[in-house]
Design brief:
mainly alpha; 9 helices; 58% helix; 0% strand; rod-shaped
Amino acid sequence: MKFLKRKIQAKLNINGLDYDSETSNPPPTKKGKKGPGRRHRKKRFTNNFRASEKARSTKNLIKNYARAICTFAHSNIAEPYLLPLVEKEKISLERFCDYMYVKKEEIDTIKTFRAALTINEEDSEEEKAFKRIFKEMGIIFIKYFSVNWIFSGKVTYTKTYLKFRHKMLRRIKNPELFVSLAEKS
């Protein structure tokens, strides 16, 4: 205890205060400050890594747009746009709706979305027709129905989805260039 009293007295004498331990009480210390006799706690490193808002807002953007296009393509709202395309390609409407239902579950990345849009040489004639119709339905959805989908659905980051709408339209028109959303075009 004497050691601490001497340490306090030396500190007060340095600061220009005259303190005599026998005649007066020591001045009160502020709470929360480190003082003599108090231990300070080590700061623990907590890794509270949270993704930036930009990363969170674009995380499922491709998947959500692709699934919305698939849902739109086999809905009743799309029939006025879909029937002329199906007649032009000479395929059945039921087969196309089944194809869209399967594609909706498969698409989850840019790569799978690009594969659903690009026509390859090894694709059958029916699948090529499905892909052409899917591409046209995607363009129609983005142009005329995506704003309503964004605001009436469960989309959290509406500004981001609106901002990327035109990028998605360009990527759907040219799926070969559909590598990432970050590239400038």
